[in-house]
Amino acid sequence: MIDINIVLIGFMGSGKTTVGKALSNKNNFSFIDTDDLITKEEKKQIPEIFNEYGEEYFRELETNVLKELSSNASNNIILSTGGGMVMREKNVKLMNKIGVIIYLKTTPEVILKRLQNDNSRPLLKDKSKENIIKLFNKREKYYQASGDIIINTNNKSIDKIVKEIEGCI
Ligand code: S3P
Fold first, then answer.
1. Most buried among 8, 26, 91, 113, by the most CB within 10 A?
2. What is the block-wise mean pLDDT of the chain (169 residues), using blocks of 10 residues?
3. Whole-model pTM?
4. Distance (Å, rounded) from C-alpha 140 to C-alpha 14?
5. Which of 17, 19, 32, 35 best tests ligand 1's pocket when mutated (most atoms within 8 Å of CB)?
Protein backbone atom coordinates (compact mmCIF):
# COMPACT_ATOMS: atom_id res chain seq x y z
CA MET A 1 0.00 0.00 0.00
CA ILE A 2 1.10 3.55 -0.62
CA ASP A 3 1.09 6.41 1.87
CA ILE A 4 -2.55 7.05 2.50
CA ASN A 5 -5.19 7.46 5.20
CA ILE A 6 -8.27 5.29 5.27
CA VAL A 7 -11.57 6.38 6.79
CA LEU A 8 -14.04 3.61 7.56
CA ILE A 9 -17.74 4.43 7.59
CA GLY A 10 -20.81 2.27 8.05
CA PHE A 11 -23.68 1.39 10.32
CA MET A 12 -23.17 0.29 13.93
CA GLY A 13 -21.97 -3.30 13.92
CA SER A 14 -20.63 -3.19 10.37
CA GLY A 15 -17.14 -4.11 11.60
CA LYS A 16 -15.35 -0.76 11.29
CA THR A 17 -13.35 -1.25 14.48
CA THR A 18 -12.52 -4.93 13.94
CA VAL A 19 -11.61 -4.48 10.29
CA GLY A 20 -9.75 -1.24 11.01
CA LYS A 21 -7.61 -2.87 13.70
CA ALA A 22 -6.81 -5.89 11.51
CA LEU A 23 -5.94 -3.67 8.55
CA SER A 24 -3.73 -1.42 10.65
CA ASN A 25 -1.88 -4.34 12.29
CA LYS A 26 -1.17 -5.95 8.95
CA ASN A 27 0.05 -2.78 7.27
CA ASN A 28 1.66 -0.93 10.15
CA PHE A 29 -0.90 1.84 10.11
CA SER A 30 -2.02 3.68 13.22
CA PHE A 31 -5.56 2.84 14.26
CA ILE A 32 -7.77 5.65 15.50
CA ASP A 33 -11.43 5.39 16.54
CA THR A 34 -13.49 8.58 16.82
CA ASP A 35 -15.59 7.11 19.67
CA ASP A 36 -12.38 6.31 21.60
CA LEU A 37 -11.06 9.83 21.14
CA ILE A 38 -14.35 11.25 22.39
CA THR A 39 -14.58 9.01 25.46
CA LYS A 40 -10.95 9.76 26.38
CA GLU A 41 -11.42 13.50 25.96
CA GLU A 42 -14.74 13.61 27.84
CA LYS A 43 -13.74 10.98 30.40
CA LYS A 44 -17.20 9.50 29.94
CA GLN A 45 -18.66 6.56 28.05
CA ILE A 46 -20.88 7.24 25.02
CA PRO A 47 -24.18 6.31 26.77
CA GLU A 48 -23.30 8.71 29.60
CA ILE A 49 -22.57 11.52 27.12
CA PHE A 50 -25.92 10.92 25.38
CA ASN A 51 -27.76 10.76 28.72
CA GLU A 52 -26.18 13.80 30.27
CA TYR A 53 -25.82 16.16 27.32
CA GLY A 54 -27.93 14.72 24.51
CA GLU A 55 -27.18 13.56 20.98
CA GLU A 56 -26.48 17.00 19.47
CA TYR A 57 -23.66 17.56 21.94
CA PHE A 58 -22.16 14.20 20.96
CA ARG A 59 -22.45 15.15 17.24
CA GLU A 60 -20.52 18.36 17.94
CA LEU A 61 -17.79 16.33 19.59
CA GLU A 62 -17.63 14.08 16.53
CA THR A 63 -17.24 17.08 14.21
CA ASN A 64 -14.54 18.54 16.47
CA VAL A 65 -12.59 15.28 16.35
CA LEU A 66 -12.69 15.30 12.55
CA LYS A 67 -11.63 18.96 12.44
CA GLU A 68 -8.64 18.18 14.59
CA LEU A 69 -7.64 15.12 12.58
CA SER A 70 -8.05 16.89 9.24
CA SER A 71 -5.81 19.76 10.27
CA ASN A 72 -3.09 17.33 11.19
CA ALA A 73 -1.07 16.05 8.23
CA SER A 74 -0.39 12.50 9.44
CA ASN A 75 -0.23 9.61 7.01
CA ASN A 76 -0.93 5.90 7.29
CA ILE A 77 -3.88 6.19 9.59
CA ILE A 78 -6.95 3.99 9.67
CA LEU A 79 -9.80 5.99 11.12
CA SER A 80 -12.87 4.16 12.31
CA THR A 81 -15.84 6.53 12.64
CA GLY A 82 -19.11 6.41 14.57
CA GLY A 83 -22.07 5.17 12.54
CA GLY A 84 -23.77 8.58 12.55
CA MET A 85 -20.78 10.51 11.19
CA VAL A 86 -22.05 10.69 7.61
CA MET A 87 -25.26 12.49 8.61
CA ARG A 88 -23.56 15.89 8.69
CA GLU A 89 -22.37 17.27 5.38
CA LYS A 90 -19.44 19.05 7.00
CA ASN A 91 -18.27 15.75 8.49
CA VAL A 92 -18.19 14.18 5.04
CA LYS A 93 -16.09 17.09 3.74
CA LEU A 94 -13.69 16.69 6.65
CA MET A 95 -13.46 12.92 6.16
CA ASN A 96 -12.65 13.49 2.49
CA LYS A 97 -9.85 15.79 3.58
CA ILE A 98 -8.50 13.09 5.88
CA GLY A 99 -8.36 10.20 3.41
CA VAL A 100 -10.06 7.62 1.22
CA ILE A 101 -13.51 6.82 2.57
CA ILE A 102 -14.47 3.16 2.61
CA TYR A 103 -18.06 2.15 3.31
CA LEU A 104 -18.37 -1.24 4.99
CA LYS A 105 -21.79 -2.27 3.77
CA THR A 106 -23.72 -4.72 5.92
CA THR A 107 -27.41 -5.62 5.80
CA PRO A 108 -29.72 -4.82 8.75
CA GLU A 109 -30.36 -8.56 9.22
CA VAL A 110 -26.66 -9.20 9.91
CA ILE A 111 -26.41 -6.10 12.10
CA LEU A 112 -29.40 -7.27 14.12
CA LYS A 113 -27.71 -10.60 14.85
CA ARG A 114 -24.39 -9.02 15.74
CA LEU A 115 -25.80 -6.41 18.10
CA GLN A 116 -28.38 -8.53 19.85
CA ASN A 117 -26.51 -8.49 23.18
CA ASP A 118 -24.91 -5.09 22.88
CA ASN A 119 -25.83 -2.37 25.35
CA SER A 120 -23.19 0.21 24.51
CA ARG A 121 -25.10 2.04 21.77
CA PRO A 122 -27.70 4.58 22.94
CA LEU A 123 -29.47 4.62 19.57
CA LEU A 124 -30.03 0.89 19.72
CA LYS A 125 -31.74 0.60 23.06
CA ASP A 126 -34.63 -0.65 20.97
CA LYS A 127 -33.09 -3.58 19.12
CA SER A 128 -36.23 -4.56 17.25
CA LYS A 129 -35.84 -5.34 13.57
CA GLU A 130 -38.16 -2.41 12.76
CA ASN A 131 -36.01 0.10 14.63
CA ILE A 132 -32.77 -1.09 13.04
CA ILE A 133 -34.28 -1.13 9.55
CA LYS A 134 -35.75 2.35 10.04
CA LEU A 135 -32.42 3.85 11.11
CA PHE A 136 -30.55 1.88 8.46
CA ASN A 137 -32.86 3.11 5.69
CA LYS A 138 -32.45 6.69 6.84
CA ARG A 139 -28.68 6.42 6.65
CA GLU A 140 -27.93 4.03 3.82
CA LYS A 141 -28.03 6.69 1.07
CA TYR A 142 -25.54 8.82 2.99
CA TYR A 143 -23.12 5.92 3.38
CA GLN A 144 -23.47 5.08 -0.30
CA ALA A 145 -22.93 8.68 -1.40
CA SER A 146 -19.96 9.28 0.93
CA GLY A 147 -17.96 6.12 0.25
CA ASP A 148 -15.18 6.36 -2.34
CA ILE A 149 -15.07 2.58 -2.16
CA ILE A 150 -17.89 0.27 -1.09
CA ILE A 151 -17.11 -3.14 0.36
CA ASN A 152 -19.88 -5.66 0.98
CA THR A 153 -19.09 -7.37 4.26
CA ASN A 154 -21.96 -9.87 4.59
CA ASN A 155 -20.74 -13.45 5.01
CA LYS A 156 -17.11 -12.46 4.65
CA SER A 157 -14.32 -13.12 7.13
CA ILE A 158 -12.34 -10.19 8.52
CA ASP A 159 -9.33 -11.48 6.59
CA LYS A 160 -11.26 -11.44 3.32
CA ILE A 161 -12.55 -7.90 3.94
CA VAL A 162 -9.03 -6.72 4.77
CA LYS A 163 -7.67 -8.29 1.56
CA GLU A 164 -10.43 -6.66 -0.48
CA ILE A 165 -9.59 -3.27 0.95
CA GLU A 166 -5.88 -3.82 0.30
CA GLY A 167 -6.73 -4.72 -3.29
CA CYS A 168 -8.54 -1.41 -3.79
CA ILE A 169 -5.91 0.90 -2.36
C1 S3P B 1 -23.59 5.85 16.66
C2 S3P B 1 -22.66 4.86 16.49
C3 S3P B 1 -21.69 4.50 17.53
C4 S3P B 1 -21.42 5.69 18.44
C5 S3P B 1 -22.69 6.24 18.98
C6 S3P B 1 -23.65 6.70 17.87
C7 S3P B 1 -24.56 6.12 15.58
O8 S3P B 1 -20.46 4.06 16.94
O9 S3P B 1 -20.73 6.69 17.74
O10 S3P B 1 -23.29 5.25 19.75
O11 S3P B 1 -25.22 7.18 15.58
O12 S3P B 1 -24.66 5.27 14.65
P13 S3P B 1 -20.31 2.66 16.15
O14 S3P B 1 -20.79 2.87 14.75
O15 S3P B 1 -18.84 2.40 16.19
O16 S3P B 1 -21.11 1.66 16.87
1. 8
2. 87 97 96 98 97 98 97 89 98 97 96 91 92 96 98 96 95
3. 0.97
4. 12
5. 35
